[in-house]
Fold this sequence. Notes:
Layout: E1 8-13, E2 25-30, E3 36-41, E4 44-49, H1 50-61
Antiparallel strand pairs: 1-2, 2-3, 3-4
Amino acid sequence: MIEIYQAKARTVQLDDYCHLSQDKYMNLVEWQNGEGFDLELDGHHLALTWGQLEALQVLAHYKG
């Protein structure tokens, strides 16, 4: 059986967020089951659960 659903997708140009990312974009598509998302950043793809994103945020903000 083929299922059809409407994906929750968001796209943003990165010029306003990073001076090194001129003319680049980020695209995020939430998984149908809501447990994570696919991220495309300038042609690179990454799939993360929301828990993995939380762990990444902890690492990025760690002050040691």
